[in-house]
From TrEMBL:
InterPro entries: DUF305_CopM-like, Ferritin-like
Keyword Signal: yes
Record key words, sorted: Signal
Organism: Deinococcus wulumuqiensis
Classification lineage: Bacteria, Thermotogati, Deinococcota, Deinococci, Deinococcales
Annotated Pfam families: DUF305
Endpoints of the signal sequence: 1-24
Positions of the DUF305 domain: 24-106, 138-194
Entry annotated with the keyword Signal: yes
Protein name according to UniProt: DUF305 domain-containing protein
Length: 195
């Protein structure tokens, strides 16, 4: 059965609202930086409209996606869980494809918004090292991907409201659909482990 688009957005919102409780119960204090990500400050983007918004969104989403790819590359060689390996490979494949798409779009539409890219790169620091330093890298990866995806869904929802370019709108919709489902799957995986 295909879910209506409204339901998908509501599901994503429900996941975001449920996240702080899960974070308080499941994440260790060494990953407090991740909690900052789930409440990312989007006020700068909210002030933009039209092509300026579209460029800012694409410019921010590239380093955001790259951080997930880096984290997936760190967990793959040490993962002991087939499901986590499947997820990590999917993150690398899907987000690299979207990075290439966004890079091509930016090249054709005025180039990268350097300030937005730099701000996002700075806020993504430490994600891969969080997995690398964990005694349970599979758990660290899954717990880290939840707030990471939540912040991507936040940005994508904003793009669905304020974006003007068809490519931006479609990418934002695809991010919401895919990453809300992945957050749900991650939560179920953690729940089965009592986390």
């Amino acid at each position: 059965m295909v879910k209506p688009k409204k339901t998908i957005l509501l599901t994503a919102t429900a996941v975001l609202l449920a996240f702080p409780l899960a974070q308080a119960q499941g994440m260790n204090h060494s990953s407090m930086h991740m909690s900052d990500m789930s409440s990312m400050d989007l006020s700068g983007m909210k002030k933009l409209q039209g092509k300026a918004f579209d460029r800012a969104f694409m410019s921010a989403m590239i380093p955001h996606h790259q951080a997930a790819v880096d984290m997936a590359k760190v967990v793959l060689p040490v993962s002991k869980d087939a499901t986590v390996k499947t997820w990590a490979n999917a993150v690398i494949k899907d987000q690299n494809r979207e990075i290439n798409q966004m890079s091509a779009w930016l090249k054709a539409n005025g180039g990268t918004d350097a300030n937005m890219a730099k701000m996002m790169s700075g806020s993504m620091q430490g994600m891969a090292s969080m997995v690398k330093s964990s005694k349970t890298p599979d758990v660290a990866f899954v717990q880290g991907m939840i707030p990471h995806h939540a912040s991507a869904v936040d940005m994508a929802n904003l793009a669905l409201q304020q974006g003007s370019d068809q490519t931006v709108l479609k990418l934002a919709r695809d991010i919401v659909k895919a990453q809300a489902q992945e957050m749900y799957d991650y939560r179920q995986w953690l729940k089965k482990r009592g986390l």
